[in-house]
Amino acid sequence: RIPEAHLAVARRLGMTCADLGARAFLVGGSVRDALMGLQSGDLDITVESPPGDFASAIAEALDGQVLMTSQFSTARLSVADVEFDLVMARSETYPEPGALPEVAPGSLSHDLARRDFTVNAMAAELSPASWGELVDPHGGQADLIRRVIRVLHAASFRDDATRLLRAARYASRFGFDLTESSLEQALDSADYVKSISPDRFRNELERVFDEPRA
Length: 214
What we know:
The protein has helices at 4-19, 29-35, 54-61, 108-113, 140-146, 156-159, 162-174, 180-188, 198-209, and strands at residues 23-27, 44-48, 65-69, 74-79, 82-88, 90-93, 102-105, 123-125, 134-135, 148-149, 177-178. By secondary structure, it is α+β, with helices and mostly antiparallel strands. The two termini are 25 Å apart.
């Protein structure tokens, strides 16, 4: 379900990271959509134990270029006309509701645990020795089968209230339901929407309106 050009870049990336002493994983929506049998047009890559300037090192090794970087150890790369996001595996803490997270280097386990929902907290290994091996510590594949949206922890909506809109967006798109506990948490956390900056709220709301069943 992933275009051949994207898979070719992912294989090269996995080999390059292994040569650099790191591990690369396909993560998030790319894995979710592939498991659901949906076409996936994006590559979201997380690198565990990356070298110092990992984006530049990987771009140079793959004859690509770094298009942009951010303060959150993320980068946008272009390799063989394929653009993709490259992220350092990290942990996050939220100093207060609605605040941008404070990030620190972490393991893949930390990186998956910081995500919004179990169905987005899966990864697929890109290293040659374990190519395609699914990493699913939070039961995301089972929740896909159950057709439910489930948050990873009790403070999820408080930490980032944009997840309230995202939960509705995914439920609409896939025809899923929130689990009973996640729905209760969403209702209890509704006031945290006021903690989101106007720009972030607008951006997330515009994405809701882009859904086929908005």
